[in-house]
Amino acid sequence: MVLLPHSRTSAVLSFLAFLTTSTCVSASRSPGLPFVINTWGGAFTAATDAAYLALIADRNTSALDAVEIGCATCEKNQCDTTVGYGGSPDESCETTLDAMVMDGTSMKTGAVAGLRRIKDAIGVARAVLEHTRHSLLVGDLATNFAIQNGFKEQDLTTEASKEKCEAWKRANCQSNYRLNVAPDPSTSCGPYTPLPGIDQQTLARSVMEDEGAVSHDTISMVVIHESGIMAAGTSTNGASHKVPGRVGDGPIVGSGSYVDGDVGGCGATGDGDIMMRFLPCYQAIENLRQGMSPQDAAEDVVARMLRKYPNMSSGIVVANTKGEHGGAGSGWTFTYSFRGGDMEATEVVSVPPLPRRLEERRRNTNDIPDEI
């Protein structure tokens, strides 16, 4: 049967029970090392190719170098307008950037959030990793740090992003991320004031009615050098029409991406405001550590989030130290890209939403109850 949106909650709960009793799904075979995997296909494959070719061209290119090169490619190309400058303007029509890099050997990270007027977000994140003892810098002070480290201050707004924001305002600022405020955010641009006396029942209802984000197409990448050394990174311009100052999951360690060179790496995309509440990439790597395959690790993480937020959009990619990989998602047909070994081209994997994948599996096995 086809799962309708209003039936997702029961289907997800049934799936959680199925996960505990079904035979494990094996990971996709590794093409060999070096290996690059990242969220999304389409324009994002340019990042996969750039990272992989950098590793092939020069063995001195590190895993961390390749992550930076791959994510920077998407920043420059404005992949899907959701990475880099000129995309996802906030309520004030400004584009800000979030990025993070992580070294799988030392577990050291560097990240920036709400970065203003600097195009090379992934480069600044790496500067945080290499030139400070900190993990995360934010806002205008992150911009000051970037300038001190030789990055050029530039306007991140384009004519396209400006028009997108103005069109949104002409449409009464629909949709937006305001809740429990006056005037009604479903019909007005504000300015808003908080409604008094919000109780827990109202907050809970707001959660269950949350339809999730339309598009948060973060690039999140995991790289394995031919030596086995691993690194990961993430870059995004966040949610369109977000409340100014909002930071999503991209620069949050364990949420946007995570890597442990002894175990594997993970990248995530989707509704970051929800996903960061679950640290999905940290959980995925811990799943690997406990013996799950990459595919099962990814599906388990998505199922955990769907239990609480059945309407959310998400995408998870997971790879172990061998380059065996898997992915899972919800709310959309998620894709991811990979290239490794002596592959001549990047391959894109299409991943149906987890409830649909469950339904497809039901048709091919007697292990799943008929009532699902």
From TrEMBL:
InterPro entries: Ntn_hydrolases_N, Peptidase_T2. Pfam families: Asparaginase_2. Keywords: Signal. Gene3D superfamilies: (Glycosyl)asparaginase (3.60.20.30). It comes from the Eukaryota. Residues 1-27 form the signal peptide. This is N(4)-(Beta-N-acetylglucosaminyl)-L-asparaginase. It comes from Podospora bellae-mahoneyi.
